């Protein structure tokens, strides 16, 4: 029986394992994970910390037991420390120090990512937290019970930082959000959209400190953090969250597999690495980005799931080519919903596209409908090829599904001119006859 070994059983790994177990009963599946849990939805972490949900119970959708009931052999709390790619052997060590060796016919690496560690004095102080794992969130929640924790400084105003800033505010903490960049969410939105989010955060009492470089953290005699020092200011801090991005966890691939510029494992559209019997999925690998028409690194659970499915079929001998991604993403903070896909205008210009954008703001539904809010849509396109490169939408309405049409448009290289006359239904309960999709696109010269 052919044996497929999976290292890492979070979102990518779980998708690959389930795909194999469901579709290929003739394959043996062996799994290693160094953690004690599987499939933790990090996206629920802020909801849990901010008490918008009561417990973490619903934040898992799989477990060792579920995978084993479906036929996998699962080693939990067992870290793989070496792979002999030549002899196809994987070496793990369990929590009791026992060495476990398993061979494989095909190997799927799903070792994910690690939070970036800033090399600054004070980073080892107590109450300086990373937020990636279930255990991290549990630790933060336990510490927040201590009423002495009043001032929380969040470093990094990307997706994790902004979501956690909201969560700490909901716990009635004084929250300062610091970023090296001049705004929150610089990786995802253009300036006027970022301004909407910054205004929203400010209006909810979050102290925004942008264009500041973190220099060091100071502590008291008990080694607990007390201050955050930047190149411009200093802030009282009883807890500091470091959320300045992820790096791929590709240590096991070094010295054997080809890596991308940020050390992600390079894969082709079948998730195959430079070793034909080894696949890499999710945050530890690269992904093809249809917006730039090049390989890229985009750490998202959605990509982990999709690449897991693709790798599983290919590892089992049924060819399935991935179709690439647009990096579609979304955030919802104090009722402000923002979604984006593909390139922002700023990034498109930086990459050398002949970029232009059209923008339209209008009520979601006709004026006679109550409970109705403005929606702002920006579509970014290339003036020469006319290809749609990206889109951003912001509103207090739930506009989340709207971004998917732009994701498909980028994937299928739809031009802005073709998009102008896209068939969009109208019903006053949902939208307007002069839809903002159409109105924005018609503005393209
Ligand atoms: C707070 C937070 C919120 C997020 N919100 C969203 C969101 O809303 N939407 C979204 O799309 N994405 C979100 N993400 C990103 C998303 O969680 C990641 O992209 C996703 O977890 C990647 O899945 P993965 O399986 O590739 O890697 P990981 O989740 O990093 O899992 C890797 C697994 O490999 C195991 N492992 C690593 N090394 C070894 C080893 N040597 N031996 C054995 N096991 C090993 C680890 O224990 C882990 O279980 C969020 C992330 C965080 C932290
Ligand atoms: N809603 C979602 O889809 C969601 C939610 C959370 C996380 N995620 C994903 O998880 C990954 C990690 O999220 P993240 O928030 O850590 O990364 P991110 O890339 O979203 O944000 C990192 C932020 O840190 C800032 N930064 C970098 N170095 C800094 C420094 N030295 N000092 C101060 N600020 C600095 C950057 O300017 C950026 O704003 C991302 O890929 C993200 O898309 C997605």
UniProtKB/TrEMBL annotation:
Keywords per UniProt: FAD, Flavoprotein, NAD, Oxidoreductase, Redox-active center
Reaction it catalyzes: 2 NADH + O2 + 2 H(+) = 2 NAD(+) + 2 H2O
Limits of the Pyridine nucleotide-disulphide oxidoreductase dimerisation domain: 335-431
Any one Gene Ontology molecular-function term assigned to this protein's record: oxidoreductase activity
Listed cofactors: FAD
EC class (word): oxidoreductase
All copies of domain FAD/NAD(P)-binding, residue ranges: 3-308
Alphabetized Pfam families for the sequence: Pyr_redox_2, Pyr_redox_dim
EC code: 1.6.3.4
Recorded family membership: Belongs to the class-III pyridine nucleotide-disulfide oxidoreductase family.
Database matches in PANTHER family: NAD(P)H SULFUR OXIDOREDUCTASE (COA-DEPENDENT), PYRIDINE NUCLEOTIDE-DISULFIDE OXIDOREDUCTASE DOMAIN-CONTAINING
Protein name: NADH oxidase
């Amino acid at each position: 029986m052919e044996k497929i070994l999976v290292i890492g059983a979070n979102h990518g790994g779980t998708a690959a394992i389930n795909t194999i177990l469901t579709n290929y009963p003739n394959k043996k599946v062996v799994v290693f994970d160094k953690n004690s849990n599987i499939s933790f939805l990090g996206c629920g972490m802020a909801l849990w910390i901010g008490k918008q949900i009561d417990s973490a119970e619903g934040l898992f959708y799989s477990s060792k037991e579920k995978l084993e009931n479906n036929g996998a052999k699962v080693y939990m709390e067992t870290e793989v420390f070496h792979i002999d790619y030549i002899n196809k052997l994987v070496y793990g060590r369990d929590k009791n120090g026992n060495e476990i060796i398993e061979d494989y016919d095909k190997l799927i690496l799903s070792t994910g990512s690690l939070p970036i560690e800033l090399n600054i004095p004070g980073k080892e102080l107590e109450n300086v937290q990373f937020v990636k794992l279930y255990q991290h969130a549990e630790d933060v929640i336990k510490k927040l019970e201590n009423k002495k924790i009043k001032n929380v400084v969040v470093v990094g105003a990307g997706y994790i930082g902004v979501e956690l800033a909201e969560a700490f505010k909901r716990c009635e903490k004084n929250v300062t959000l610091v970023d090296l960049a001049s705004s929150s969410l610089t990786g995802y939105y253009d300036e006027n959209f970022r301004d909407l989010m910054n205004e929203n955060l400010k209006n909810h009492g979050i102290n925004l400190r942008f264009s500041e470089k973190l220099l060091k953290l100071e502590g008291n005699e008990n080694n607990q953090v007390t201050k955050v020092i930047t190149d411009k200011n200093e802030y009282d801090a009883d807890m500091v969250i470091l959320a300045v991005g992820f790096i791929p966890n590709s240590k096991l691939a070094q010295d054997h597999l080809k890596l991308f510029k940020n050390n992600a494992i390079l894969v082709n559209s079948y998730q195959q690495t430079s070793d034909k019997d080894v696949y890499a999925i999710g945050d530890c690998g690269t992904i093809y980005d249809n917006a730039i028409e090049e390989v890229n690194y985009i750490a998202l659970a959605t990509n982990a799931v999709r690449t897991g499915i693709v790798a599983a079929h290919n590892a089992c001998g049924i060819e399935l080519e991935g179709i690439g991604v647009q990096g579609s993403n979304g955030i919802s903070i104090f009722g402000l919903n923002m979604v984006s896909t593909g390139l922002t205008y700023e990034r498109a210009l930086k990459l050398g596209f002949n970029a232009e954008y059209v923008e339209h703001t209008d009520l979601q539904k006709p004026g006679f409908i109550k409970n109705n809010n403005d929606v702002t849509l920006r579509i970014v396109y290339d003036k020469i090829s006319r290809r749609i490169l990206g889109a951003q939408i912001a509103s207090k309405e739930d506009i989340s599904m709207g971004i998917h049409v732009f994701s498909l448009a980028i994937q299928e290289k739809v031009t802005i001119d073709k998009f102008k006359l896209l068939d969009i239904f109208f019903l006053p309960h949902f939208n307007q006859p002069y839809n903002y999709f159409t109105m924005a696109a018609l503005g393209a010269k």
